[in-house]
Amino acid sequence: MTDRALSVVRSGALTTVQDLGRPGHAHLGVPRSGALDGPAAALANRLVGNRPEAAVLETTLNGCAVRPRSTVTVAVTGAPCHVSVDGRPAAWGAPVRVPAGALLTVGTAVSGLRSYVAVSGGITVEPVLGSRSTDLLSGLGPAPLTDGAVLPLGTPNSLHTHVDTAPQPAPPAELVLRVTPGPRDDWFTPEAVRAFTSRTFQVSSASNRIGLRTEGPALERRLKGELPSEGMVLGAVQVPPDGRPVVFLADHPTTGGYPVIGVVRQTDLPAAAQAVPGTPVRFIDVRRR
């Protein structure tokens, strides 16, 4: 049995393995997946000397606890949280040495929603279609972590970047999403189109890796029929029959039949990964800027 592995002591509410995802397979009905907060995952890898494509752990809300079988370097980024090694406080957002057999605890998010745990060498579960990411929609990739699971680790990169710490954006107090209207904004009344980019919504507790759901004003349709299923892209803002916009995130379906009123810039989506329920959401029409 290899000593390059992590034993999962506490899996948390939802902890998954994520990397850069598996883009390019939408024609097969396979979502992109990958870390929702890509910059946070990339920073965690950089802090421990991993390559950008190395797989990390993405925790949700209440963290996780793992025990390495050999001495490793770890870094926790994303949502700020308390980090400890065998009960002793450790740094968040910086490289931390964890001895073999010690318990690394990633606590509940103090703000934000998702924390990222990189381990030197990366997590080397078996890739599927070129990615080690867990896809909650299709079921591809490793299952979400469970207590007692064992995750293999790769060999640490000998070319360490020697980064001690790095600034990170705070989770959003207000989520501002720049959006390009269309392609189906003509399915909505003029009043609904104006409300979409002038009213304030809130993040719904029903949000997940598939989509950020919102609460707030219902957007009324002008056309009452249904669309044939058509392709969906990352950041598409689909409006289901209840009229509340849904922003598609990494595990989104590749096709859908509800009209898309706009598409959010991908550079704005990492902040959506950290927006807790109740966070105000504003959609900004980029054509007016």
TrEMBL record:
A single Pfam family it belongs to is CT_A_B
Name all Carboxyltransferase domain ranges.
27-289
Assigned keywords, A-Z: ATP-binding, Hydrolase, Nucleotide-binding
Q: Which SUPFAM superfamilies match?
A: Cyclophilin-like
Tell me the leader sequence span: none
Protein name stated in the entry: Biotin-dependent carboxyltransferase family protein
